[in-house]
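Narrative progress, year one. The postdoctoral researcher (J.K.) led the effort to move from monomer predictions toward full complexes, under supervision of the PI. The following entry was the first complex the group processed end to end, covering 232 residues in total.
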Amino acid sequence: MTSPDSAHTCAHPDELRPDWPRDFLRTGAQRLELEIGPGRGAFALDHAKAHPELDLVAIETRRSDVEEIRERAHKRGIRNLMVFHGDAKVLVPRWFGPGQLSQVHVQFPDPWWKARHHKRRMVDVELAALLRLLLHKDGEVDFRTDVPEYAKSAVRTWEDAGFVNVDGAGGLSKLIPETLSTRERRYAQTGQPVYRARFINPGPPDVNVDVLAERLEEQGRTGREWKDVRRK
Ligand SMILES: C[S@@+](CC[C@H](N)C(=O)[O-])C[C@H]1O[C@@H](n2cnc3c(N)ncnc32)[C@H](O)[C@@H]1O
């Protein structure tokens, strides 16, 4: 919301978020989805193409992947996909407002194998608490990994944040998704197992997200250390 004299004052942070419907050249509000770490983008491209009714924002740290996806989207005439080069941990809290997202896809996030590096993993208490706020009621998290131990800890993290597991507490999905990611297509050929889970947001969190993240951390879940590592 713009105050009468906003031209002469600092903008409120809420005024600085992208206007997604306008940026996607839509006339009204649209279903907005987010993919974190699309890699070479097979999922992003095919999902956007198959669902012209939604808008998909993808954030990827590897510039060459971003350029490749943009080029392929352009060649295929896909207009409902925007791919940005950047760190989702930094951009997601700044770019989306409460209840704005319909679905978030986190597919095969980097495993950070060593125990001392687990704190750098994409799925942590802060992301889970934040997505409780940014997804609207009944909005969904689509999580996939090829690392069984990551699957187990991520399922616990989403559930601890208050998401409802579609397959029951601790459960994994047996359904083959409509669209596979780049990596998942390779595994479909080789037969390597994939662990998938879906979570529904029951509604806005009943506590402030920072408080929720703190509470989860008190229960021994990680999050803050990730930032500390990045600052060094
Ligand atoms: C293992 S790849 C999986 C790529 C793709 N989702 C797939 O399934 O084929 C993980 C991807 O996440 C990206 N990534 C890692 N950290 C990220 C971050 N903080 N923000 C955005 N992308 C990130 C990596 O650059 C990489 O492309």
